[in-house]
Amino acid sequence: MKFEFLHPADQIVLMMSRIYQGGMTTTSGGNLSILDDNGDIWITPSAVDKGTLTRGDICCVKKDGTIIGAHKPSSEFPFHDAVYKMRPDIHAVLHAHPPALVAFSVVRAIPDVNLVPNARKICGTVGMAVYATPGSDELGNNIGDKFRSGHNIVMMENHGVCIGADNLFEAFKRFETLEACAMLEINAKKLEQPKSLQDAEMNLTEQSDHLRMDEFVPNSHSSKECAARRDMINLIHRSYRQHLFGSTQGTYSVRLSDDSFLITPYGIDRAYMNESDLVLIKRGMKEQGKIPSRSVKLHQYIYEKNKEINSVLGANPPHAMSFAVTNAVFDPRTIPESYILLRDVPKVPFSAIYLKPEAIAEMFTERTPVLMCENNQILATGNSLLNAFDRLEVMEATAHTILLSKELGEIVHISDDEIADINKVFKLN
Questions:
Q1: Which residues contact 78 (CB under 8 A, 6 or more apart)?
Q2: Phi, psi (5° rounding) for residue 151?
Q3: What is the C-alpha separation between 231 and 389, in angstroms, rounded?
Q4: Which terminus has fewer CB within 10 Å in the chain: N or C?
């Protein structure tokens, strides 16, 4: 989707719907605005259901203060206006009350953006604005001052978060990423204190450039390839809805034939990705004019070294990643399904995925179909796309179960004798 070609009112409706449907705000909570090239501010209305907004509901506040629209603009207009006046480079402002960020807001703390790669790069530094009455000039000044000091994200004491960016999609990415960081930190602390990435590790991530690949133009697209593209897109959209990864995070691939495979592209919104966005990789070359995920070489190694693997999924499911950012051991022997699908799930060092991708590829076996990469991602493999996706889902559901059990008592894992019986009945090696 070419977001920049949408009218400001349509952009606001689309993004507010996405925020609301994602459970990241309420019927009456939150507001979005866009400063257009004429200096007019388009903003969500006051007292209108966020779940049913239409383009006709969006207000326009002209440069001279004239209000155009069927409703009054949001009562929070003063701090939107303050941000634009403080920061001429900002053309979109997002304010909402997502549960995890509100939790940080009410304890007056800032989420750690160093738990996973790219979060700090997307979010930057995060400020905290002193509490003031909603809709007041004082609140606008408190928030505006933080933006003037260089922050693009400002937590608001006992209120929520305010985010500014050059465009609304960029603001949404920052918002979604920070909420994911907040939820990850909350989940991880149910296990133990999470570990932050150090500067050297962050530098390793930033130095991981896109693989230089020759290009080719496909002569045709087989029915098998078209089916794989369709199935991948269906599960990519489902994965996004289920919060298994974010708008521009997460890599799925499927082996085709003749040393070729399809892989997700770099930097394209997973919520609206379509079949033509996927990148065909063949004999070490990429489909012309497209940029594959930076994990393309790792996926290629996995296929080369494991002929039984036909799909590889890399994702950041919020409960499973709680184990990846702590020293806690993930033990899938909770229910038979979890053990049968996941078996052993080793944890590999953060740097290995960048420095030793071939060694990572060689770790996958029938007993080890899933790997956990410290502070990075969960890698799930399968003999088909659906098999790999099933494992990713079960991994996340199992991790969620373990975290929930912390409130109830000690887990009683399936015993060694019971595991031996499962191995025999299901013919597991």
A1: 135, 136, 137, 139, 140
A2: -75, 145
A3: 11
A4: C
Residues 63, 67, 71, 76: what is their CA dihedral angle, to the nearest 10 degrees?
Answer: 40
Q: What is the mean pLDDT of the chain?
A: 94
Q: Could you give the C-alpha distances from 380 to 251, 370, 390, in angstroms and in order?
A: 11, 4, 9
Q: How confident is the model at residue 208, as a pLDDT?
A: 66
Q: What is the DSSP track for 196-207?
A: PPPHHHHHHHHT
Residue 224, token pair as written in the block = 């098998």
Half-sphere exposure (CA, 13 Å, Cβ side) for 112? 18
Residue 2, pLDDT score: 76
* 391 neighbors 380 (Cβ within 8 angstroms): yes
pLDDT band at residue 209 under the 50/70/90 scheme: low
In the three-class reduction of DSSP (H, G, I as helix; E, B as strand; rest coil), residue 355 is classed as helix
Distance CA 171, CA 113 (A): 16
Rounded CA separation 252/233 (Å): 10
Closest by Cα among 47, 50, 65 to 12: 50
- Indicate the SS3 state at residue 44: coil
Residues 6+ apart with CB under 8 A from 345: 330, 332, 368, 370, 371, 372, 395
Tell me 79's DSSP state.
H
Confidence of residue 1 (pLDDT cuts 50, 70, 90): low
pLDDT score at 205: 80
